[in-house]
Amino acid sequence: MQYGREEAQQVYGEAVIPILKSVEALTIELAEDFATSFYATLLEWHHGSEILLALSAEEMESLRKRQAQYLIMLLSPSLTQDAHASAARHVGRVHALVGLDVLWLVQTYGMYLVRIREMLAAAIAREDLRGKFMDIASQRIFFDMEFQFSVYGQIDRRIDASQASVDRAISRAGNLTDLVRTVMAVTGELDGDVCMIFGRADAEGEVQVEATFGKDAEVYSHGMDLGTIPRMSIHDRLQTGQGPGGRAWRSGQIKISNSWSIPDESNPWLIPGKELGFRSSAAVPVLNEMGQSIAILSLYSRWPGYFSAPRLNGFLSHVQRALGYGVQRWKDAMVISLQEQKVYRDLLDEHQVEMLYQPIIDLRSGKLDRLEALARLRGRDGKLFSPARFLPAFGEEELLQLFQLGLKQICADAKTFESAGLIAQFAINFPAAGVSDERYEKELFETLEVGGLSPSRLQLEMLETEDRCAQKEQGLAFLRRLNERGIRLAQDDLGSGHSSLLRMEQYSFDEVKIDQGLVRSALHKPLKALEFILHLTRLAHGFDTVVVVEGLENLGMIEAAAILGADFGQGYGIARPMPGSEVVRWTENYKYPADPLNPKTALGALAAYVLLDMEMSVMSKSWDAQKSQPVANGVIERFLAHQELHQSPLEKAFLARNGSRTKEALRIDRQRDPVVELLTERWQSELMPKQ
Q1: pLDDT in tens, 491-520
Q2: Burial of 18: CB neighbours in 10 Å, binned 0-12, 13-18, 19+
Q3: 422 by DSSP, 3-state: which?
Q4: What predicted TM-score, i.e. pTM, was given to this entire model?
Q5: I need a surface site. Which of 267, 393, 474, 637 has the fewest CB within 10 A?
């Protein structure tokens, strides 16, 4: 803030020099006594005294000396407006960072002026000089306060901007790693020398550090890896659960500590933190919609009292709410320590990416339709890491790098297959962020052109945990360009709870893949799983979209998927993911084990029974159900004959149900249908290991 020339001259001009010069020696003589008296009074105040009490004896003495020097500067005859503004803004920053609010500062200035009058003005003998001196002192103190307030305003505006940046980060993040990184980076831009640690609890209740911000936080986290600093626990029965972090986790409330400079033998984090310069901290529990802690953000500052400021309290509460909303979107993401994450990122940087291929076959003919390329990381010991391990450690930059390396390897392997006579089609997972990131489009087409792979031989499988680009024209335009170039699109994991049926229409997918979790539930709840597969398949076919069923781990699942109308299938029952060197040999030797019209398993027969129920529902609206012979009916009869179940309880139950048809559809009674019960029992016995 700059004041007018005339106004400034009354405070800093030549006219005030003689007055201040006459008391300069007295000011210097009384400055330290003034500072001592000033802080003694402040310590008696309830409001704000906790900041001073958080200082060590050495820090308090240093503060007293600096205050004495500041008084000498404030009343110096040679002080200029610019020099005063610079000094006051520096002090204002310090006051803001240690948590002094504006009201407290105003009250302090009032007391400051009173102390000057008591200690300095009383020592000036001449009344006229005393009055002129106090006028100058009062105006300079007023200007000092204004200069400091301008800094408070700047900090407040920065905090407001940071809150908006946090909200944008939450809405744009496509994965947990980027979400945490961005929120921490935004928070770290605040003035206050803040470093941070983010972590979640593992199965034992020990908080694993998953992200850090700032060099000091990295050192602190490394100390936990080495065991020189204990990890935080969420359990109250352990000493490591008694700190601010553990208490914050259990209470769901932000815990602030301003006492890092005060010795406390019961605090195992105090000494290493103090050595790093930590003076205050805030433990922010990240809560889910039920108010339960699912993560914690620990912040550390070199300023005592930093997190006690009301403006910081409000910001931390905002971060807590925003992170809670964001993190719970990935609540099932695996907890991976920062040390383990580094292993995966280093392997990626070293291009230790290996693509395995899992065949996807036509469920009618059993012929290979395409190969899904699945990325693995090859460890230095030769061990392969699956995506379930390393993907949660990757942000958008790492995902782009993984996509680039995987696509290049597909192109190279395609040429190898071609030399052996196999012209293969390929599918590769496509990160959600790639839809609106132009780097993916550039990398995709450049790599295909250089690698000599026709776009028509590639399919991109998209899994969205949240529909980030459903309303973005650029995303839709990108997908249209893919389609125009011949690249096919598949929606992955239909029915997983992540994917939206609306997206099938918006993006005009060529294919959908039914979530393998649904399929695997057939092991324990076969009827429910089969009905899901049937209805999802019919729904997709209604969109003129073909269906792939994942997770086909045995013959029964293969038969069931084929009988229920799915077009393609993949899973361990067909082939496990394999290195490129094994693909050609597999294609030459594979024999399709299933015949949808002649199932060999009880699960296949149960699928036919579910289909029969649907066929009868349709036929009863126009035909006489008793005279009709649905296709599924013959499938079940052939199963009974093949298994030599003549006169068995299962055949009798089926004939009884079959004979009870009327013009109304035959509806399966999930609770009491004997056919379902007997087929389920038989299926589960088929799954039992053979003795």
Answers
A1: 886 655 445 555 666 667 889 998 887 777
A2: exposed
A3: coil
A4: 0.79
A5: 474
